[in-house]
């Protein structure tokens, strides 16, 4: 049987398995390939060759290309005239994907980090030394903190700055998994739980029932997951950043190192973070950067920011829309923050303010309390409060007539 026939048999076998293969030399040159797409062949060879000095035997890489996602397994092989690397490429099709489980490579992680509010405001700021040390210890790291304090982005920064950046980053949102996704996670050989060398970031623990929680934790312990992969767990499930019962159980059973992502008010100078985000918006839309008056900066620094970077983004975008390339004055900052309080009230029901405002009450009482809240934050300016609430001054007067009496 000649070599051409053998190659054709190999191509057909790989194709039937939904895969293809190529061999490259140390310069990234393609020595042999079963790929029919020459452009894809060159892209895969270039992608792998850039990482040859850092990948090990049996390394698994993830490559994204024009809506396609390829899983690449790289193995070195010694030849008489020099080393070759055999790359087996398998396309991860949409049908094989699972909601809540996402495989990313370093380029994709970096792009997402840089486009996130945390990445825009903090740039590539180094993660605190104790967090880096915990990440490198070979034990799961539990990142706690308030909602929107950047836990997921801190996990990405740890990955990008760490030794596993040439391996996949897998994000698992446990609260988004379907029954099929859970079966894949706990049973499939393709599950990220049974791989080696990747970084696994898992969140959404508050939504996991007792049985699945025990099964998942047992699988992580029995397979010594933390000795094979970097494991980062995130928890921001409770108001004020408190730990859910599920996250507490996981932290104890897995003997996690625990770090708390600081709220942005704890870091101080929130107005400077807002200014950086406004600068980003101005650069994106090619306008002059809005300025913050000293009074507006003080107002922003004094605010609670209960949703942290999530809220900072929303508020900054509203400020930019309202003032354009002008100056943010205190009244505008107060108006935007008043809107944020209304949004938070409608979303969470119990804002951390002096007023006792809960939404599980008769609608007329809730409307009245929201109106009082907005008027209070605008220092009694009812005209502005009516504009913020989208109602007439007469309607606002009717809501507050008991107060007037």
Question: What tags apply to this protein structure?
Answer:
alpha/beta, 13 strands, 405 residues
Cα shape: elongated
Number of helices: 18
Stretches with pLDDT under 50, minimum 5 residues? 346-360
Per DSSP E runs of 2 or more residues, the count of β-strands stands at: 13
Describe the biggest sheet?
6 strands, mixed
Q: Which percent bin holds the helix content?
A: 40-55%
Bin the strand percentage.
15-25%
User: Biggest sheet: strands side by side, in what order?
Assistant: 6-8-9-10-7-11
Distance between the termini: 101 Å
User: What's the gyration radius in Å?
Assistant: 26 Å
Mean pLDDT across residues? 82
Give the structural class.
alpha/beta
Describe the structure.
The protein is an alpha/beta fold and 405 residues long. Helix content is 48%, strand content 18%. The chain has 18 helices and 13 strands. The protein has helices at 3-16, 38-49, 106-115, 117-122, 129-136, 151-161, 179-187, 210-222, 225-228, 245-253, 264-267, 270-285, 294-302, 308-323, 330-348, 363-377, 382-389, 393-404; strands at residues 19-24, 30-33, 59-65, 68-79, 82-91, 101-104, 141-145, 169-173, 199-203, 230-235, 257-261, 291-292, 327-328. Residues 346-360 have low confidence and may be disordered.
Describe the secondary-structure layout.
Elements: H1 3-16, E1 19-24, E2 30-33, H2 38-49, E3 59-65, E4 68-79, E5 82-91, E6 101-104, H3 106-115, H4 117-122, H5 129-136, E7 141-145, H6 151-161, E8 169-173, H7 179-187, E9 199-203, H8 210-222, H9 225-228, E10 230-235, H10 245-253, E11 257-261, H11 264-267, H12 270-285, E12 291-292, H13 294-302, H14 308-323, E13 327-328, H15 330-348, H16 363-377, H17 382-389, H18 393-404
Parallel strand pairs: 7-10, 7-11, 8-9, 9-10, 12-13
Antiparallel strand pairs: 1-2, 1-5, 3-4, 4-5, 6-8
């Amino acid at each position: 049987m000649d070599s051409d026939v053998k190659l054709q048999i190999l191509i057909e076998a790989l194709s039937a398995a939904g895969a293809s293969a190529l061999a490259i030399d140390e310069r990234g040159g393609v020595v042999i390939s079963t790929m029919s797409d020459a452009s894809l062949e060159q892209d895969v060879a270039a992608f792998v060759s850039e990482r040859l000095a850092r990948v090990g035997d049996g390394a698994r890489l993830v490559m994204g290309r024009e809506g396609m996602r390829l899983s690449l397994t790289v193995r070195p092989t010694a030849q008489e005239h020099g080393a070759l690397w055999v790359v087996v490429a398998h396309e991860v099709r949409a049908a094989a994907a699972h909601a809540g489980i996402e495989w990313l490579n370093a380029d994709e992680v970096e792009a997402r980090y840089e486009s996130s509010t945390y990445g825009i405001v903090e740039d590539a700021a180094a993660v605190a030394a104790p967090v880096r040390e915990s990440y490198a210890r070979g034990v799961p790291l539990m990142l706690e903190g308030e909602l929107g304090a950047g836990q997921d982005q801190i996990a990405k920064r740890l990955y990008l700055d760490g030794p596993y950046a040439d391996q996949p980053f897998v994000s698992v949102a446990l609260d988004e998994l379907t029954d099929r996704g859970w079966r894949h996670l706990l049973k499939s050989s393709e599950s990220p739980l049974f791989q080696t060398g990747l970084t696994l970031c898992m969140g959404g623990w508050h939504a996991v029932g007792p049985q699945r929680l025990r099964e998942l934790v047992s699988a992580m312990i029995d397979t010594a997951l933390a000795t094979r992969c970097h494991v980062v767990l995130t928890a921001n499930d409770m108001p004020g950043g408190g730990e859910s019962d599920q996250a507490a159980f996981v932290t104890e059973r897995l003997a996690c190192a625990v770090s708390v992502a600081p709220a942005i008010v704890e870091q101080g100078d929130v107005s400077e973070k807002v200014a950086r985000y406004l600068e980003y918006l101005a650069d994106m839309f090619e306008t002059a950067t809005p300025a913050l008056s000293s009074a507006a900066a003080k107002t922003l620094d004094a605010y609670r920011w209960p949703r942290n970077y999530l809220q900072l983004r929303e508020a900054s975008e509203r400020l930019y829309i309202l003032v354009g390339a002008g100056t943010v004055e205190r009244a505008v900052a107060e108006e935007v923050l008043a809107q944020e309080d209304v949004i938070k009230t409608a979303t969470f029901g119990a804002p951390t303010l002096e007023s006792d405002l809960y939404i599980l009450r008769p609608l007329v009482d809730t409307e009245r309390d929201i109106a009082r809240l907005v008027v209070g934050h605008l220092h009694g300016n009812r005209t502005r409060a009516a504009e913020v609430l989208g109602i007439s001054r007469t309607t606002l007067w009717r809501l507050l007539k008991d107060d007037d009496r």
